[in-house]
């Protein structure tokens, strides 16, 4: 018996179902041979167990034909196909038909989704699947009804076999709660791959009034984001749910467990559950494996009336509520919580009904179907063989460096991009190559999951640019270089000098390559002498951050200590001459890279053991946080289209990624120094701005390209993904990752 479908460790419900069905049938027929053909959604495959004997690539139609040859060559007696439109390539999954046309054994197709209103392509595929399958298996009576009425499938060709579930005893939930730290609580649960169709936002909106009556309630949202959604949108939906818990004031009553749990762990979560919620948005869902499993474990269910729920939650075995009605979810949950007798009787009724759905019983029904179609259909197997060969904490995105690599050539990183394409016209600058080198040092420290040679190659390019930028005659850095490698000015701005010094200090403290550390130290010493005469507050701050890193590696560096004293005094003097109770800031206007002024005094005051200096950093940062927040709690950086002027207007747009990154860095520094969790929360708030928690609810970070939009306008995201913005996101991501998994800095 051969089974075709997604297969574990691929993370999706079909993969789990295929595994469970194959193992159950194998256990029910121990003298038979069961094997699997796995459908891959990526070229690099998965690390499959030995049960998988062949693989095919979702979008490669030739691999379907080779799979058919393999099945025919091995004389399989029956092929059981798991069908879902989204898992096969071609229009409406039509690539599957290339396999079904070629196989010579009877086919039993399990239909995991049935559309009542298919488009032309979907209807054509379904009609041909029906024609080429000896039997169609559905998991609910409604599915059989749709096959008859919509697709004109004969009754004799339809088998109704329920979704299988593990066979577990009916347990009191209190015994399992201690391991999750929720003992004494009433546990609501939703689990499965997370995506917008789950309607979880309605469950969250129901919580305030539930908790008002039952403060002991906790809602666990268990499961990883659907891989396809994650690839296309990142964690945008999950983050919107987390933000919603804050807005609804129920954050302390909701637990997000972002992982694809093992079957054993899942049983424990279900055992700890009192009420299961499935607030799905679409009535057309014919089957839900999560609903089946929880129902069969004897848990009370509150669900919207999609077809599968309507069918099994009858006769006192659950409560159905209308779609999109949080108030109805509230009422149903409270009815169970306030009527313990009803809750207990519902659980008992569900568990008893679930005994017909356990995997051994389901496997026996499949075996009956397999034996029947095998006896009815005998065709000689082909021996032609076309050369088939067998073939692997908190919602932070995975770093994707594709756009940075695309923006970098052998000279350095380009300043600007036209959408996602490097803009050669404006060439390179020291500012961005300094930022890029800082990022490489952070990634070097994080290590582990990135090819070291890639990071080393990039960091070498960026450091070489900085070395070239230093004018040895003047000790100053040039900033702008044309595409043909001509410096466009003899000396750059104080700010670009400060950023270069910051990057070099970071390299001394963090680079994992001796040659790079030594070169950074030499360049740093050559460039340090000019900073004492600077007049730009931002240049003071950038230089102080670089000096701070240098002194972490070489705490006795006398020149760095002297420069730190001078620049710190300059910033403190600026503060004292300008700050008032109503305007606790360094200048009459808050303009760009604002949080760096606060951060520079924070880290310098702490390192110098000068609490007064550190406290100026904290006070100014606290004020900056207060004015960069929307009424709904989103981070709103000061806009570059006018900035924020004392006793004047405040620009809300254009919002710049570099401002969010500066705020994240400063808040994380404040958290490391004070250990006050408010600073960690503010860093997260600012990071969420990149992902869509902002004025327009639009993400600036593009998880497909790995780039970041150049700003947030009043009506849109700037679609250009320049170096400054993209580096701002990736440095922020690295710092947030480092904050969650700290690694000791190199001495």
Strand and helix layout:
Elements: E1 2-5, H1 13-28, E2 35-40, E3 52-57, H2 61-73, E4 79-83, H3 95-100, E5 107-111, H4 120-132, E6 135-138, H5 141-151, E7 158-160, H6 174-177, E8 186-191, H7 200-213, E9 217-222, H8 227-233, H9 236-247, E10 254-257, H10 263-271, E11 275-278, H11 289-296, E12 300-303, H12 307-312, E13 319-320, H13 326-338, H14 340-354, H15 359-376, H16 402-406, E14 417-418, E15 421-422, E16 428-429, H17 430-446, H18 452-469, E17 470-471, E18 476-477, E19 480-481, H19 494-510, H20 514-528, H21 537-553, H22 558-578, E20 589-590, H23 595-607, H24 611-627, E21 644-645, H25 657-674, H26 677-691, E22 701-702, E23 707-708, H27 723-740
Parallel strand pairs: 1-2, 1-4, 2-3, 4-5, 5-6, 6-7, 8-9, 8-11, 9-10, 11-12, 12-13
Antiparallel strand pairs: 14-15, 16-19, 17-18, 20-21, 22-23
Helix pairs in contact: 1-15, 7-13, 11-14, 13-14, 17-18, 17-19, 17-27, 19-20, 19-21, 21-22, 21-23, 22-23, 23-24, 23-25, 25-26, 25-27, 26-27
């Amino acid at each position: 018996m051969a089974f075709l479908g997604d297969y574990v460790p691929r993370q999706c419900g079909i993969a789990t179902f295929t595994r469970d069905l194959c193992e159950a049938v194998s256990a029910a027929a121990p003298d038979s041979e069961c094997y699997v053909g796995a459908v891959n959604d990526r070229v690099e495959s998965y690390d499959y167990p030995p049960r998988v004997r062949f693989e095919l690539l979702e979008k490669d139609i030739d691999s379907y034909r080779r799979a058919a040859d393999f099945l025919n060559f091995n004389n399989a007696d029956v092929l059981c196909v798991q069908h879902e439109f989204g898992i096969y390539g071609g229009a409406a999954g039509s690539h599957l038909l290339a396999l079904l046309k070629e196989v010579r054994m009877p086919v039993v197709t399990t239909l995991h989704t049935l559309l009542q209103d298919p488009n032309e392509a979907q209807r054509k595929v379904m009609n041909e699947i029906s024609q080429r399958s000896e039997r169609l298996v559905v998991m609910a009576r409604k599915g059989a009804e749709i096959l008859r009425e919509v697709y004109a499938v004969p009754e004799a060709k339809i088998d109704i076999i329920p979704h299988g579930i593990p066979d577990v005893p009916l347990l009191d939930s209190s015994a399992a709660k201690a391991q999750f730290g929720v003992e004494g609580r009433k546990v609501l649960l939703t689990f499965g791959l997370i995506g917008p169709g789950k309607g979880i936002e309605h469950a969250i909106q129901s919580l305030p009034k539930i908790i008002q009556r039952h403060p002991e309630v906790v809602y666990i949202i268990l499961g990883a984001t659907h891989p396809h959604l994650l690839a296309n949108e990142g964690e945008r939906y999950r983050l919107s749910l987390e933000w919603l818990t804050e807005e609804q004031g129920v954050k302390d009553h909701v637990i997000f467990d972002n992982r694809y749990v093992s079957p054993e762990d899942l049983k424990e979560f279900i055992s700890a559950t009192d009420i299961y919620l499935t607030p799905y948005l679409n009535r057309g869902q014919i089957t839900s494996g999560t609903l089946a499993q929880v129902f069969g474990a004897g848990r009370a269910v509150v669900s919207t009336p999609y077809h599968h729920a309507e069918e099994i939650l009858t006769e006192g075995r659950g409560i159905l509520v209308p779609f999109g009605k949080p108030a109805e979810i509230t009422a149903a949950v409270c009815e169970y919580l306030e009527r313990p007798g009803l809750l207990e009787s519902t659980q008992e009724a569900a568990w008893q009904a679930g005994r017909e759905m356990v995997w051994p019983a389901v496997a026996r029904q499949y075996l009956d179907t397999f034996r029947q179609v095998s006896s009815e259909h005998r065709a000689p197997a082909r021996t032609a063989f076309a050369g088939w060969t067998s073939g692997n904490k908190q919602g932070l995105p995975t770093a994707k460096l594709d756009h940075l690599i695309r923006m970098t050539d052998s000279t350095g990183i380009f300043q600007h991009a036209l959408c996602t394409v490097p803009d050669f016209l404006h060439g390179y600058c020291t500012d961005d190559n300094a930022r890029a080198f800082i990022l490489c040092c952070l990634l070097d420290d994080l290590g582990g999951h990135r090819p070291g040679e890639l990071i080393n190659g990039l960091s070498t390019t960026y450091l070489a640019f900085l070395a070239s930028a230093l004018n040895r005659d003047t000790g100053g850095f040039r900033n702008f270089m044309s595409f043909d490698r001509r410096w466009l000015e003899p000396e750059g701005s104080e700010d670009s000098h400060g950023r270069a010094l910051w990057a070099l200090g970071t390299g001394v403290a963090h680079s994992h390559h001796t040659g790079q550390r030594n070169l950074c130290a030499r360049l740093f010493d050559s460039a340090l002498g000019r900073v004492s005469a600077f007049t730009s507050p931002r240049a003071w701050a950038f230089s102080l951050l670089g000096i701070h890193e240098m002194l972490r590696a070489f705490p006795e560096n006398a020149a760095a200590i002297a420069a730190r004293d001078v620049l710190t005094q300059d910033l403190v003097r600026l503060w004292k001459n300008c700050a008032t109770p109503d305007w606790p800031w360094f200048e009459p206007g808050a303009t760009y890279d604002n949080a760096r002024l606060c951060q520079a005094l924070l880290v310098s005051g702490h390192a110098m053991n000068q609490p007064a200096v550190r406290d100026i950093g904290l006070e100014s940062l606290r004020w900056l946080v207060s004015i960069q927040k929307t009424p709904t709690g989103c981070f709103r950086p000061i806009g570059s289209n006018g900035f924020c002027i004392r006793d004047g207007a405040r620009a809300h747009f254009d919002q710049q990624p570099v401002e969010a990154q500066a705020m994240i860095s400063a808040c994380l520094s404040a958290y490391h120094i004070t250990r006050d969790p408010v600073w960690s929360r503010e860093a997260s708030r600012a990071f969420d701005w990149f992902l869509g928690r902002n004025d327009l609810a639009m993400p600036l970070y593009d998880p497909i390209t790995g780039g970041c939009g150049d700003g947030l306008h009043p009506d849109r995201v700037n679609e250009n993904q320049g170096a400054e913005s993209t580096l701002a996101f990736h440095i922020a991501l690295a710092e947030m990752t480092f904050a969650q998994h700290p690694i000791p800095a190199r001495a």
